[in-house]
Amino acid sequence: MADLQLGLFEKQFAEFIWEREPVSSTELARIALEKFNWKKSTTYTVLRRLCDKGLFQNENGVVTSLISKDAFSSIRSEQFVNDDFEGSLPAFLTAFTRRKKLSKEEIEELEELIEKMKEL
Length: 120
Prior knowledge:
6 helices, elongated, single chain, three-stranded antiparallel sheet
């Protein structure tokens, strides 16, 4: 799968599409002018980049997602752990909890998740 690293404006635009899909590319250009002050060409360039990354498709002027927002978040999280922690979830959690202590509720939620994963 392609690297799903997104710049700030790409991420904002992707969020914008996910909230409104299916949406016409013409409507996206109109709203992007209002929201981001983008010219039509800028909107279509950013949309093309997002389509090239495999997030969205623009068929007959209608933009829909190929990857849901939740799936995108999961893929990016996995890429982050792989890239920055050599794929080690325990190394990530260790780094994360050095500066932020987990609440009792977070610990219980993680324990439940671990138990569910043991059953698989």
